[in-house]
Amino acid sequence: MKKMIDKFIEQNIEKDGFKDYLIKSFSPILKDYYLENDSETYERLIDKEKQQQLLHEFMEKECVELFKFCKKNDVNIIGLKGIFLEKQFWKQPRFYNDIDVIIHKEDIKKLYDYFLNIGTYKVIKKRNINPFQKNISLSSMLNVNLDKVHHVVLWKESEELLLSGINHIEIEVHGSFDTFKIVDIDDESMFNDSIIFDDFRVLDSESSILFLIYHTIQHLPYIRHDLSSLYIKIDRFVDVACIIFNGEIDWSKFEKLSILHSMSPLCAFYFKMFDEIFPKVVPGFVIENIKSESENMDFKWKKTYLRLMKMNALDLIVGNFNDFPEIEKPYLKIRKYILHERFNNKYILKFAMELWKIKLSNIHSNLE
User: What CA–CA distance (Å, rounded) separates 318 from 33?
Assistant: First the structure.
């Protein structure tokens, strides 16, 4: 895998925006590159790795206790990405900020009892922002329908964490993945494809790849009304490569899952970029089958999808949208003149996201 990444860097290092992309990716997988070419980024990375190791220790402790409770109280729970992915597949530290789990929506009450008993967790809002809502009580978990709300976000704050230089531990509790117009991943299918790893219940390889693709695409501003970056960090591709290189993938099963969950367009688009970094790692016939399936589907952003599939893969990775001005110009205007990088201002962020949502809907509709 490292040889492929090194070759990807060597082939593109002189292209516009590529060096900046490597810095913005800020990945442990690029440590050697930073050491040779960017001492400032390298030093930041070393500091981040030390902080991440400490965070990992606290998070692993939280996960052990949480999964132990769930096993004892018959709560169906699966660990997603982050710390679980690192433990299974990464051979070095991986950066992550939270713990993601998926549960049966009926088990939310049991999980509420668990967090209430700990006493140091509180519910916060990070999705579907309501700027006028103040502090939210932990009991608000009981009123959440995880079929309609993407997830519940919980924070743990304690003196022990603060003394260690960590502000909080964040846990995101998911119930289902049906927030895309074309995606319908219910919790039952997730649990049917789960396995046990180090006493943690996690997704099998095929379902994990599918979820990681979903998670990558859902944060792209030109697919969904998200105002994060146009570029895609290299770790989003390394995660999937790690799974493929460290296991036997049943590609027939993966194809069936992508069709079952209406995710063929997301997978085809993702693999277009993935193949640029890790060529021929995903079998060519799999990519062609998924592309063919996508062309026969009808979905809201299909015109955008067809346009994206004609773009240069490297441009998509690094966020160069000169060839797609219908997306780039309004996106950059909102980021520059309205948001001004003020992601922490919930009033401005809410307004900017709603404006971009309207713009994006018009873009999807008006493309030829």
Answer: 17
Are the C-beta atoms of 45 and 82 separated by less than 8 Å? no
**∠ CA(299), CA(220), CA(34), 5° rounding?**
145
Q: One-letter amino acid identity for 242? A: C
Cβ atoms within 10 Å of 92's Cβ, excluding its own: 10
Cβ distance 111 to 220 under 8 Å?
no
User: How far is residue 171 from each of residues 62, 82, 151, 210, measured CA to CA in Å?
Assistant: 9, 11, 10, 21
Tokens of 79: 């660990």
Instruction: Output DSSP code: residue 136.
Output: B
For residue 289, give both structure tokens: 């089958």
Position 222 confidence tier, pLDDT thresholds 50, 70, 90 = very high
Q: Give backbone dihedrals phi and psi of 229, rounded to 5 degrees, phi first.
A: -75, 155
* Contact criterion met (CB below 8 Å) for 142 and 112: yes
* Beta-strand pair 98-103/169-174: parallel
Residue 132 — very low, low, confident or very high, per pLDDT cuts 50/70/90?
very low
Amino acid 311 reads M
Closest CA to 225 of 352, 368, 54: 352
Q: Quick one: tokens of 25? A: 């990716």
Tokens, residue 306? 């067809």
- Cβ pair 356, 331 in contact under 8 A: yes
Q: What is the pTM of this model?
A: 0.92
User: Does the pLDDT at position 340 exceed 90?
Assistant: no
Encode burial over 14-29: b for 16+ CB neighbours within 10 A, e otherwise.
Answer: eeeebbebbebbbbbb
For CA atoms 334, 365, 303, 326, the dihedral sign is negative
**Tokens representing 360?**
């994006």
Q: How far apart are CA 211 and CA 214, in angstroms?
A: 5
Could you tell me the two tokens for 201?
């219940």
State both tokens at 36.
């040779």
